[in-house]
Amino acid sequence: MNKFIFGVMAFFASAPAAFAIDCQTGAECVRVPEISALEGMAAVAALSAVMLLVWERRRRAG
Predict the structure, then answer these.
(1) Per the structure, how many domains does the chain have?
(2) 7-10 long-range CB contacts below 8 Å, 24 or more apart?
(3) Among 38, 34, 41, 5, which Cα is nearest to 17's?
(4) Whole-number pLDDT of residue 35
(5) Which residues cross the membrane (predicted)?
(6) d(CA 62, CA 49)
């Protein structure tokens, strides 16, 4: 259940960037910073490393 709640929280935290409006339509324009593939993969790698460290620490403690 905790994983489900964490997943829902992550989804809602990332939702505003997904609904950014394109400036060409004449609607309110929202500026969203671009991220390169290298920066994105670095963020995923950092998050994965933290998750693996936490998992390993819990595994050794238990």
Answers:
(1) 1
(2) none
(3) 34
(4) 78
(5) 36-55
(6) 20
Two tokens, residue 40? 């994105």
CA 50 to chain centre: 14
pLDDT for 20 equals 58
| Structure tokens that stand for 26 in this block | 């004449």
Give tens-digit pLDDT for 8-62. Answer: 888 777 766 666 555 566 666 666 677 788 888 999 999 999 999 999 999 999 7
Domain holding 38, by residue range, is 2-61
Q: Output the 3-class SS for the chain.
A: CHHHHHHHHHHHHHHHHHCCCCHHHCCCCCCCCCCCHHHHHHHHHHHHHHHHHHHHHHHHHC
